[in-house]
Structure formats: structure tokens, C-alpha cells
Amino acid sequence: MSAAPSRAGSQALRKVLAVARHEFISTVTRAGYLLTLIGLPLLVGVTSTLSGLIASRAMVARISKVQRLGIVDETGLFKNAPLRAETAVDPDQMPSVLKQGRTGAIFGGVQEQTRSFFSADLRPFSTLEEARAPLLKGELDAVVRIPRDWLQGGRLEQHRRQKRGLDLLFAGNPGPALRGWLIKGLLEGRVEPAVIARAARPADWSSFAVDARGNTTPVDTFAVLKPLLVPMVFALLLLLSIFVGGSFLVTGLVEEKQNRALELLLTSLTAEQLFWGKLLGLWLAALLQFLLYLAVLALPALLAVAALGIRPLLVVEAFAYFVLGFFFFGALLLAVGAVGNTQRYAQQLSGLITFPATLPFLALPLLLDQPDGAVARVLTFIPFTAPITGMLRAAAGALPWWEFLLSAAALALCTAATIRVCSRIFRVALLASGTTPGVAQLWRWAREAR
Predict the structure, then answer these.
(1) Residue 250 in contact with residue 340, Cβ under 8 Å?
(2) Which of 47, 62, 360, 402 could potentially form a cystine with 388 if both were Cys, beta carbons 3.0 to 4.6 Å apart?
(3) Quick one: how many helices (H) and strands (E) in the chain?
(4) What is the spatial distance between Cα 257 and Cα 180, in angstroms, rounded to a whole number?
(5) How far is the C-alpha of 150 from the C-alpha of 145, rounded, in Å?
(6) Cβ–Cβ contacts within 10 Å for residue 354, how many?
(7) What angle do CA 65, 70, 76 make, to 5 degrees?
(8) The pTM of the whole model exceeds 0.85
């Protein structure tokens, strides 16, 4: 008697695996999947590299350019000031791409090992009207007016030719170039040269963190961001798998429902076997996508886990959220694909389901600033937001082990309940025809006995 149920169970498993294999092959051979798998990383990499190069070159050219400025000094404080303005920058405070400037800037006669950017050649004028003609002819980039009450109010005026477009780099502000020149004009002859130099660059900050035991350690911004690398990769891959894989799943189901292919499949399969086969096949396609991205993009970084300070437990937590989250959303999308009678309607429903998964990214500044706050804790236990929120909180070290276990257990229970309900809806909706079911009809389907 026990052999018959065993044979029936193995036969059912073979059918589920057969459907999973077919769903996996049909998904990974789609042009859209291959384009996403190969084309998306290439597109992101190429566009990011090009935009970064263009932006860095534009910034270097912009801040290295010697500006031509007209000066209308109504205060008389700068009548003996030099006609050259430069602001020195400490090389240690600059990005490497900018460390190609001129060296040897002088503030108040003090030579420093700095690089000189934000330079300007100055041309004095008696009045603003006198400077307007050279400005309009293009002989000047801008005219700076220093009003009589500048010492009291501190406001300067900048006059530029009207032009189209936006100046996103420093908004055409001559302030960086004139900073040292203004300080020198105010202080030269009144204080020592070393004071002038320090006034030009008053402070280089060093930050230290104090723990509960009173120990102080230097603050390293990169060290704070390092643990976020793995969870962010997992979170982005989960979103990509949900949106891309879910789109293929919904589209394929609607097509099969419209061409009656599902009715033929149901002659040799149960609805539950078909449901699980499609869910496993789609998960395998998402796992392949994840592993390839991991090998190409993330594996080189993950090989240096010890150097990055990433805890192995963090990888386990992120992978657990990835698996549970995918099966939760995958079950919902399977039900949506079975319910939808048209591509447009099914895509609209799937958008309503997948949108909540992006909420943690919308609240990312709050989650990173207060990873143990009330909002973060609540989102950790909501099935739609738990995977990504849990990953981010774990990376920030703000997810205690008991909260992780409780969150994972709650997500697992919700996933199991969702799969149970969605499998019932899937079974009834496959053969349903006519008008699109409403919420009340879906509820009745979910409550039907097996």
C-alpha cells in the first residue's frame, strides 16, 4: 500500500520538474531575457563610464579655466590688490581626477604644497556702466560689483551675459576664485601673513567616533559604506528579478491562456503541479541571472570579504531574504497572470504588486539615517518591504539576530500562506472565462476547498 503513494509522489515531482525545466528554458531563451541579462549591465557600465568621464573632464576644464572678471570696487578696499586671483586646494582633499592642476599657490606670501584652481584675471572698472560694454562683447566672463556697504552686508553682485542653457558646475559663481583675493585684500598689512593663509583655509577636519566604552576611532566614510555593498547588490537583483521575471511570467501566462495551451497542459497536470513548476522554473531563471551578475560584477569584490569587513552572516541573511522575497512575489505574480485576461490588465495588476517592493528605496535616506527607528522596524515585518529593508538594516548593523529570525519567520509564513491562496486562485482562474473577476470573486476562489 505504501509503494503506490510513493510512486504517485515521485510521478508528481517529475511533472513539476518537467514544467520547471520547460519554463526555465523558455524564459532564458527569450530575447528580452537575454537583452536584460547581457545588455543591461553593458548599457549601465558604458553609460556610467562615459557620463563619468564627460562630467569629470567638464569639471576639470571648468575649474581649471582662468576666468576673466571685471571688478567694480566701490569700497576702495581693493585698489592696491593684485590683478590675479587664485584659490589653493589641498591635494589630499581633492578627487584623483582633479589632481592635475598647477602647484605653488601663495596666500599672503606663504608657499604651500597645494594645487591652484579657480583662477581669475581681474580687470578694474570705476563703474558698472563702464564694465558693461566689455562684458557684452565677450571680453569678460562676468563683472563683480563690490557695493559700498559690503563690510556691513557682505553681499556681492555678479553680472553675466544672458545665455541659454544651464551652468550646473558651480552655477558660474566666481566666488571660489575670489575667496583668497578678498581675504587677502581685507587682511594684508593688518595681520601676519600666516594668519592670512589660515584665514583662506581655516580648518581641515578630522572626525572620530566614540563608542560606549569611551574608545575613539577615526571615522572612515568608506568603512561605513562597505557593509552596504552586498545587501545593495542582493536588493537590486531581487528587484530586477521581480520586475523582469514577473513580466515574463505574466506575459507567458496570458499568452498561454489566450491560445488555450493551458487547457491542454491541465489534461495531464494538476493546477498545483503547473503552479509549482512555473514558480520553480522562474526562480531558476532568476537564480541564473543572479549568479551571472554575481560572477561578473560582484564576485571580484566579494573575494575580498575580509578586506571589506563584510560578515559572512550578512551574506546568509541577504540570501535568505532574496529567496523568501522572490517566492512571495512570484506566487502573487502567478495569480495575477492567471487572473488577467489581457496583457494590459495583467501588467497593471502586476505593477500594483511590485511597486511596494520599491518603497524601501524611496525611504532610503531615512532607513540609512535611522536603521533602528520605528519606520525601519515596521517595514522589516511587512512582507512587501521586509526583504529589502531587512537587508539594509542588517548591513547597517541595526538588525538584531532575534529580529532577523522573527522577520524571516514572518516572511516565510506569509510566503507559505500566499502560495497556498494564490495556488487556489491560479487553479480556478486558469479555466475561468468571461469578465475579469473582481475582489469579491477572487476572495471566493481563495476560500474554495481543494
Answers:
(1) yes
(2) 360
(3) 22, 10
(4) 73
(5) 10
(6) 19
(7) 130
(8) no
Residue with cell 581633492: 94
| Buried/exposed 212-248: b ≥16 CB within 10 Å, e otherwise | eeeeeeeeeeeeeebbbbbbbbbbebbbbbbbbbbbb
Closest CA to 419 of 239, 271, 255, 251: 271
The average pLDDT across 296-324 equals 66
**230 closest CA partner among 327, 309, 283, 288:** 309
CA distance 55 to 59: 6
Q: Cα Rg for the chain, rounded, in angstroms? A: 32
d(CA 30, CA 225): 37
Question: What are the contacts of 101-105 at 24+ separation with CB within 8 A?
Answer: 101/64, 105/180
pLDDT tens string 192-205: 888 877 887 777 77
Which secondary structure element, helix H or strand E, spans residue 143, and what is its range? strand 142-146
**Would you call 2 helix, strand, or coil by DSSP?**
coil
Cβ-contact 325, 387 below 8 angstroms: yes
* Torsion from C-alpha of 283, 232, 236, 423, nearest 10 degrees: 40
Q: What is the pLDDT of residues 40-58, one digit of tens each?
A: 667 766 776 776 677 667 6
SS3 217: strand
Domain boundaries, given as residue ranges, for the chain? 3-38+227-447, 66-204
Measured CA distances, 320 to 271, 395, 403, 407 (Å)? 28, 14, 14, 11
For residue 443 the three cell numbers come to 476572495
CA distance 391 to 397: 10
**255 neighbors 27 (Cβ within 8 angstroms):** no
How far, CA to CA in Å, does 335 sit from each of 41, 113, 419?
30, 67, 9
Longest Cα–Cα distance in the chain? 109
206-257 residue pLDDT tens: 777 787 787 887 776 556 565 566 667 667 766 776 666 666 667 766 666 6
C-alpha cell at 215: 574608545
Backbone angles phi, psi at 385, to 5 degrees: -115, -10
For helices 229-240 and 312-339, the axis angle rounded to 10 degrees is 10
- All three cell numbers of 166, joined, read 544651464
Cα–Cα distance between 343 and 258 in angstroms, integer?
10
Per the prediction, the chain carries an average pLDDT of 75
Question: pLDDT of 431-446, one tens digit each?
Answer: 665 556 666 666 676 6
DSSP-derived 3-state class of residue 113: coil
pLDDT at 380 > cutoff 90? yes
Model confidence pLDDT, tens digit, residues 163-191? 655 554 444 567 777 888 888 878 877 78
